[in-house]
From TrEMBL:
PROSITE patterns: ALPHA_CA_2 (PS51144). InterPro entries: CA_dom (IPR001148), CA_dom_sf (IPR036398). Transmembrane segments: none annotated. This is Alpha-carbonic anhydrase domain-containing protein. Residues 1-104 form the Alpha-carbonic anhydrase domain. Gene3D superfamilies: Alpha carbonic anhydrase (3.10.200.10). It comes from the Eukaryota. It comes from Chlamydomonas euryale.
């Protein structure tokens, strides 16, 4: 990650017809094995063998050399497959290194 300063009027290039990565995060209920870890930079929640049905679906071309970031440049007609990921943890932190018009 590199710090980014989003200038006023920045155009995100949003295209409603573009392929979308889908995040499916159902409620997370601890079975007693959930760990909350303060790493000093963020708060991380992770689960070991606890069953969790969270899923991330990333559309791609299906080529062996496909890169996850390539989806940003795809046309919907180019999508031939999806990759599925299953999260093992999530984390959050307060201050960002990114700014909006020079402000945090």
């Amino acid at each position: 990650q590199s710090p980014i300063d989003f200038a006023k009027g920045t155009n995100s290039g949003y295209d409603a017809s573009a392929p979308r990565t889908v995040f499916n995060y159902p409620d997370l209920v601890s079975d007693g094995t959930l760990e909350v870890i303060n790493t000093g930079h963020n708060i991380q929640i992770q689960w070991g063998d606890m069953p969790y049905d969270g899923e991330i679906v990333v559309p791609h071309r299906g080529a062996p050399d496909s890169n996850v970031h390539d989806v940003l440049n795809y046309d919907a007609s180019e999508i031939t497959a999806v990759a599925r990921g299953y999260p093992a943890q999530f984390h959050f932190h307060t201050e960002s290194e990114h700014t909006m018009e020079g402000h945090y």
